[in-house]
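Morning run. Coffee first, then this:
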Amino acid sequence: MAGLEVLYCSARAGISCPQDALVCGIHWELIQHGYRCLGAGEQPGPEERKSELLPAGWEANKEVYTLRYKSTDDARELLLKAIVVEDSMILNVMDRASQKVTDVTLAVADYINPEHLNDFHKVYKNMEELRTRIVSGIIAPLGVPTEKAKKESQAEKKDPDSPLDYNPRGIPPRHPAGARAPSWPSPLNPFAVGGQDLDPLGGRSGGMIVDPLRSGFPQPGIDPSTGLPSGLPPGAVPPGARFDPFGPLGAGRAGPDPDHLPPPGYDDMFM
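And here it is:
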């Protein structure tokens, strides 16, 4: 935890047992989450002010450590009591505004090396686990100060490792024109396999045979004057009226290539 080393060195003169070192680590975790220490004891003293340091006399009682904290936004005030019971420490924290209370029990030996109280780099162990216990057992139940939550929210927005689908401007993604999911035959009908190749004019999608009438190119509509030497005058056929053309369909409009899929040996003069 960044800053814990400086705190530990400043409080080193008062650290004489593993419980002192553990309280120091717990104190710094509360500081990291937007709280500042007001002082020791349940009652406020003269000229108190919020500080990141441990107050004078914080280690006077080795059986019950009592510290008071206030959030940086002044919205919450916590009363922390760390009670030593044999080899464990019970953290009892109360939010004085809401009277909400939470408890966490820690085994001192799980986080402190008692033989290295003089060496900060060796005195702590399993610090990530300790942080998780403090956050889940104290910070989360009582609520994160608003300033701390706001900073974390802003940090998430600036995080370059945010998910790839994050779109800060809310612009919908662009897709190529006409792109759509392929239409697959129903897996429940085994006879649908190859249906497009067996019936290329049946209106199904897919298949290897290309239908020139549905190749994607625009096709002209039916001309009623097909087969006449000259076209019908304008208005001779009302719009939308049913009308049989005079000549065969296809005359006068582009059709498929005569060489489209020719039969085998079509150019053999002896066939």
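The two ends are 91 Å apart (CA to CA). Good start to the day.
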